[in-house]
Write a structure and sequence with these properties.
This protein is of the alpha+beta class and about 180 residues long. It has helices at about 20-35, 55-65, 110-125, 140-145, and strands spanning about 10-15, 50, 70-75, 80-90, 90-100, 130-135, 150-155, 165-170, 175-180.
Length: about 180
Amino acid sequence: MDTALPRDSAELTYRDAAEADVPALVALIESAYRGESSRAGWTSEADILGGQRTDPQGVREVITAPGSRLMIVERDGEPVACCQLEHRGDAAYFGMFAVRPDLQGAGLGRRIIAEAERSARETWGVAEMHMTVISVREDLIAWYERRGYRRTGRMTPFPYGDERFGIPRRDDLAFELLVKDLA
């Protein structure tokens, strides 16, 4: 039984996304990061980025790319979260992580990232999980550090001018690589 979720005790189910899931996944990811709906949770990027977080093509590419999975987390058949897992040699990349804003802060993210790590370790035999986080997102980075991730100081420039990644509201954005040992 899942006691960490509000309103009911339904079990979570995990599965790989399919083409038919693309519209629901785009809506879920957008709701967790952009616009007013994202402010119901704590992962909103609305103050640092406008525009879109993803689009159907971007989600479809994650679903269909070799060595990539987009894991959907459902409760009662409804998507409540998702995350990308991509096999990259000795590591897996964790991205496109979204939890429905009204369910954030109840322990769901902690459970999903643990399942993603377990799945990557068992499926691909990887020793590390990698992710990139916008470096000014100190609260989010701190959350990942409490889950065992460490900052590397390795930065990648934010793709200014490419609106597929959003419209920056600041000029100091970059992605920092975070790493966790899974062995």
